[in-house]
Amino acid sequence: MPRPVHLFFKEMIMASNQGSGGSKSGGSAGSAQKGEASSKQKEGGSGKRGFAAMDEAQQREIASKGGQAAHQKGTAHEFDSEEARRAGQKGGEAVSRNREHMADIGRKGGESRQAASRSANEAGKKGQSEQSSKPPKQSGKDD
Questions:
Q1: What is the pLDDT of residues 88-110, one digit of tens each?
Q2: What is the DSSP code (8-state) at residue 20?
Q3: 21 Cβ contact list (under 8 Å, min separation 6)
Q4: Helix axes 5-19, 56-73, angle to 10 degrees
């Protein structure tokens, strides 16, 4: 039987704290540790504990296992189409508040359309000039 996820998290956090010298033993040692922590911060240490003290790869690994456990348990959140639509709409509203960004988008669209129109016109003119340079076809009838 697999180990419960909460125990895995606890072990990972404890291992991270021990690696950074943050083991707690209670009593008056707690105040000494506070002094240690503040001196670490002054010396350039992060002063972070638990999940925050872990490197990004370790955090990703733990988060991944948590997500997998939630899916196995059936408590993971999954977007339905309506919820996804609302989220997209909310994002679109946030983007559209930035007027400068919207102007850039419109400008790029106009430039793209204008370029497409020009190339279509040039292709049309090229086809017309080829037709006008050819002599007219004669019909097979004798007049």
A1: 999 988 888 899 999 998 999 88
A2: T
A3: 36, 40
A4: 170
Amino acid identity for residue 95 in this structure: V
Q: Which two tokens stand for residue 129?
A: 């000039």
DSSP H or E run through 88: helix 81-96
In degrees to the nearest 10, what's the CA dihedral of 60, 61, 66, 68?
A: 110
Return d(Cα 15, Cα 2) in angstroms, integer: 20
Question: How far from the centroid of its chain's Cα atoms is residue 126's Cα?
Answer: 46
d(CA 41, CA 58): 22
- The count of C-alpha atoms lying within 13 angstroms of the C-alpha of 77, restricted to the half-sphere facing its C-beta, is 3
Among the listed residues 21, 49, 53, the one whose alpha carbon sits nearest the alpha carbon of residue 36: 21
Domain ranges in the chain?
Answer: 5-23+32-78, 80-126
Rounded to two decimals, the pTM is: 0.30
Question: pLDDT tens digits, residue range 47-72?
Answer: 888 888 999 999 999 999 998 998 88
CA distance 79 to 69: 18
Question: What are the C-alpha distances in Å from 114 to residues 107, 111, 120, 124?
Answer: 10, 5, 10, 15
